[in-house]
Amino acid sequence: MKKILFVLVAGLVVHQLSAQVNKLPAVPRKAGCASMVSGIMLQGIDTTKSRGMALNELMWDNGKTIAVKFLPGGSQAVRSKVMQFAKEWELYANLKFNFLPDNAPAANVRIKLGNRVHNSYIGIGVNEITSQFEQTMNLDTTDFVDYQYYIKELEARLARRDTVIKVWEPERFIRNVLGRSNLVWNLKAMRGTTLHEFGHTLGLLHEQSFPGAISWKRTDSVYNYYLDNNPNWTRETVDFNVFEVGDYFYTNGTNYDAKSIMHYSVAAWQTTNGYSLPSNYELSAGDKMLIAAMYPKSQKVSALMLPRVDVKSITKLEVIKNYNKKKGISIFPTLDLASNPKMAEVYLVARLIFEDSSKTYYVNTTNQQFHWGGFLAAYQKKMLLPATKVSYNKLKKDTEIFLPDTQIPEWLRKYKVKFEFFVAMVNPRTKEMEKIGYYMSPSFMSIAR
Predict the structure, then answer these.
(1) CA distance 50 to 258
(2) What is this structure's pTM?
(3) Which residues in 288-327 belong to E strands, given as ranges?
(4) Per-residue pLDDT reduced to its tens digit, 245-295
(5) What dihedral do alpha carbons 270, 272, 273, 275 form, nearest 10°?
(6) Which CATH architecture has domain 35-142+185-294?
């Protein structure tokens, strides 16, 4: 008895395949992955110099062992292969992936095997996702199935005339395949995607965003191609993951590498000059050289690492009027800072705010010594030694930020004020000063003499 697959919905014309076997079209792989950045930003191909799209400010400390675990779900067969493929990076980087049991209490990287999308947070951005029940990486295992195996199986059955197919519906075909047990996996695709997503985890970004590499068509058809393949994406996500160049990325002095594992495939209709590129499934020579430079086995600290400071806690901001002795206002912040293996320069800033009719305002000033961003403020500069943790005002008042009384305009005396305190440092990517920790004094106070 012939088995009928893919029943066509009523009202549409049904076409039965002829006895001659027609080649069924391939099932397309999903396009793109969303590299997630935490709340903390073509024609002349030179393969002699290596690529280098990375977010250096999110690099791990060299020699780090990164704890990884799977969240519930996914077959053991897929898990084993993901672990195997991820560890290819260890051959070239001075880092280790330590795969822990599912019930491990804490892991830096948490992988969800499912049917959503492929994506990963960038570098140490995974550590900002503090819930151990939330994934930092998604791997869409429906994209790892060897659909061509099942298409050939179906073509063979059509050739024997024991199956009638009324219409080719790829989505229904995929559902039928996914319902089977002991699936046949496309290990080439699985390896390429796993290497790509773990590349993000190590701090690498999409190679197609290399400045000047690809002349994209920013048309609705190109946007829709990525939106249709990635249900959770927006046009802004497409901009960041596909089109965006320059400001977000470091090239590390290297050239564009079309063979990088971090490169999307590109279709000719998506570019203004007809440039196209197939999918990459293995680490290129450039990938290996870049990751070895980012995490060198022969050095304790990578030359590509940028200074980074973590604000571990800001627990208190004590504000004292010292009009009799010091003639001004003393601010004592209580906090902990920790630096990575690079020396860092930070600023402890106390900026004045006053209240008028339940609204708050900064105070404009032209004083070059007591301002921040053009507003009345006082600050201290601190140099943090490499790989150190420093506490301020924990056991005693050892760090004072002082605003002289002479800097407070007389008109301000009738208002109540308080201070916003923050830690700032130069963003190594943008070269602009940015806040890396923030705290507001709890209540307004009078500054009348």
Answers:
(1) 10
(2) 0.78
(3) 309-322
(4) 655 556 666 678 899 999 988 999 999 999 999 989 999 999 999 999 999
(5) -20
(6) 3-Layer(aba) Sandwich (3.40)
